[in-house]
C-alpha cells in the first residue's frame, strides 16, 4: 500500500487508485486528492455524490486552492434542491445520484473534449453511491468507469470509507484498481 504522494506521482497512463479513509476524514481526504491532482498539473473532474459542488468549491477557495481547473459532475445538488443552484460554474448537474447513464455520458464528453490534457477523475464517494444504488449496479458502473479511464489514459481515484464497504464489493474495487492507498 502506498501513500497519496507516490500514487499521484504514478497518476496518469490510465491508473486507478482505490483511496480508503475513515468516515471522520472523508472530506479532508477528498480535498487532499484534488489538491494533489491540481498541484501535479491535472485537470480534475470530481464526481460528487457526497457533498454539493457549491459547498465543495467554497471549501476549496477558503483553503486557497485554485479551482479554475476543477470541474464537477454533481449528482446531489439538483436532487436535494429540486432546481439548479446559483453557483453553476465548472459544474454539470445530474438529476439524481442513481442516474449513472447521465454521469457516464457527461464524463465521456468532458474527457473527449480535452483528451490532450492530463486528467484526474475523483469519485466522492463509493459509500454514498451505495445509498442510491444496489451493489451489482454500482460494481458494473465502476468496472465501466475503470475501463474508460484506462483506455483514455486518465487517472482515477475511488474514495471509500474503509470499514463502510461490504467485503465482496471491496474485493471488486481492489480488482478494478492498480493501487490502494490509505489517507
TrEMBL record:
Superkingdom classification of source: Archaea
Protein name: KaiC-like domain-containing protein
Organism field: Methanomicrobium antiquum
